[in-house]
Amino acid sequence: MTHTQKRIIINNIVMALSTLSAVIGISFLIWILSVLVINGIDALSMTIFANEGAPPGNEDGGLKHALIGQLILVTYATLFGVPLGVLAGTYLSEYGQKAKLAETIRDVSDIMMSAPSIVIGAFVYAIVVAPTGHFSGWAGSIALTIIMLPIVLRTTDDMLQLVPSTLREAAFALGAPKYKVITQVVYRGAKAGILTGILLAVARVAGETAPLLFTSFNDNFLNTDMSQPMASLTVTMYNYATSPYEDWQKLGWAAAFILSMFILTLNIIGRLFLLKRKGK
């Protein structure tokens, strides 16, 4: 057997194993999504969106409190995390560049992106919940902000660096100050990528459960006071899905379906923006 024939055989074996692994992975994904869709759609009803939580055995129970609570928590996290992340990413790309401080911030950001969310939840519990003596929606939003911040920061930094330097030089040559070059030239050239990063960051924090268990905890009734424990869809889904009551388990499936479809939609929109940018 020649060397070329050995290489062809090895290549075919590796190709077959890679294809088999991909098929197995996709099969499990389809299986999980199928079970989720079948059980989730079966559990959906208008009462889920109209009613709050109810005791076990009450067929009128819903997820209104959890949906509104999740929306409030994610909205505040977005309001805090996006501006901070975009501004920090702008500093790294346009001002810090290759400076030692900028490189340190990038390294810390990468570490934060890979840190387990439960660790962030425990950290916020120690600095916010424990000193105040009670759980709160503010603590939950702070935890989600910390998770979102490095994603937006790194995305903004990377997207701004992809904008050709010739555009900056042309704007400077026309006499534009640096802040106008950034806001009217650089941001416009990177807006699709930055928006994609923001959407992916929102999708990431929208599915977090562990940090909210340590911070906002949960509430089985509608509460919009951020200084008090607040319901969230993820924690409610966890509590209902692990309960021994069939009606609560049904609500857990509905919550899982709603949350999964929301995150899937955000990811698809983000990918579409990214493809649109590459198409240009």
Oligomer: single chain
Alpha plus pi helix count: 11
Uncertain regions spanning at least 5 consecutive residues: none
Q: Which structural class is indicated by helix and strand composition?
A: mainly alpha
CATH superfamily of the largest domain, called what?
A: MetI-like
Q: What top-tier CATH class of the largest domain fits best?
A: Mainly Alpha
Question: Structurally, how many domains make up the residues?
Answer: 2
| SS strand fraction | under 5%
Shape: globular
Mean pLDDT: 91
Order of helices and strands: HHHHHHHHHHH
Helix content: over 70%
Radius of gyration: 23 Å
- Note the main sheet: none
Terminal Cα separation, in Å? Answer: 49 Å
Based on the coordinates given, report the CATH architecture of the largest domain. Orthogonal Bundle
DSSP summary, beta strand count: 0
CATH topology-level name of the largest domain: MetI-like fold
Short description:
By secondary structure, the chain is mostly helical. The protein has 11 helices and no strands. It has 2 domains: about 5-45; about 50-280, MetI-like (MetI-like fold, Orthogonal Bundle).
Quick tags:
single chain, 280 residues, mainly alpha, MetI-like fold, 2 domains, 11 helices
